[in-house]
Design brief:
Number of strands: 4
Oligomer: single chain
Mean pLDDT: 89
Number of helices: 3
Number of domains: 1
Distance between the termini: 45 Å
Radius of gyration: 14 Å
Low-confidence stretches: 1-8
Largest sheet: 4 strands, antiparallel
Strand order of the largest sheet: 3-2-1-4
Shape: globular
Length: 117
């Protein structure tokens, strides 16, 4: 099972209630090198494993702590990126090299740079 690394300013820590979900996703995704964690403004979360190329290694899991189902807003918009408050990748140990982590993160979450047309 993956180790939970110390957090850095760039990488938020997993919340206690997220740890079991991340471990389960990694356990069921042998090709996964990490789990993308997306926190939404409503309190729901989206998670999915990614492989060494930044491609999906599991299905996307949406859940809300302490609830039987996700919220009505997420049911309507499938957890729109417009409502993302935080997103990061929790890496499986041993972590991929830093350059590979950057490449995967850019592919999965974008570069954060804007362009004008």
């Amino acid at each position: 099972m993956g180790q939970f690394e110390e957090t850095t300013p760039e990488t938020p820590a997993l919340e206690i209630r997220e740890r079991a979900m991340v471990e389960g996703i990694l356990e069921g995704s042998p090709d996964g090198v990490g789990v993308v964690v997306v926190r939404l403004d409503c309190g729901c979360r989206k998670m999915a494993a990614v492989d060494e190329n930044g491609d999906p290694a599991s299905k996307i899991i949406m859940y809300r702590d302490g609830a039987e189902t996700i919220c009505d807003t997420c049911k309507d918009d499938q957890g729109s990126y417009l409502r993302v408050t935080q997103q990061f990748i929790h890496w499986r140990e041993p972590e991929p090299p830093a350059k590979q982590q950057q490449r995967i993160a850019a592919k999965v979450m974008g570069t954060g740079t804007t362009t004008t047309h």
